[in-house]
Amino acid sequence: MKSVKVVALDCDGVMFNSEKANTAYYNRILNHLGYPGLSRPQFDFVHMHTVDEALAHLFPDQDMLAEAHRFRKATGYSEFIKSMEIEPGLKDLLHGLRPGIKTAVATNRTNTMAHVLSEHGLVEDFDLVVCALDVPRPKPHPDMLGKILTHFGASPGEMLYVGDSQLDQMAARAAEVPFAAYNNPDLDADYHITRLLAIRDILNGS
Q1: CB 3.0-4.6 Å disulfide test: which of 5, 13, 66, 83 passes with 21?
Q2: Is the pTM of this model over 0.85?
């Protein structure tokens, strides 16, 4: 893929191992309302979706859902950001790509991404960050990837999107952008990788 101009990455599960942080965050909300902690299927859902979609899934009762939103807005996510673990090779990858190749984030996170990048010293490593609040529709819709393509004046074939979930796969397919699946062999992808630095091999055509 030597014609690639942009590499875009999902956040949770690609840039970061955020299982510990996200589990603690949603467990706090669940426990506050008298529910047990996340089951594995519940975690798999909240890991991929926006916080609004995640809470609607966890709390089908509208009164409970409203209270969950009040509680999460009052307490926030900030204390959990330190628990997010940067994936091995991420910084080396980003430093090696830029400035020749543009770097972007496409994540279903809403209002926490700026704090995440700041806390982990990644603000200067991305040319563009697109979150769920920046587009009409979150993933699995292609809006985020379309916004990135438009911003950089790139065609779909000139971007590589790296994700780990079915929503990432669906967004890439809808945007007609080549897709690299990270640590998820079950996804339909153009490339399957188990380490982020393997993206260099993809871009070099090896």
Answers
A1: 83
A2: yes
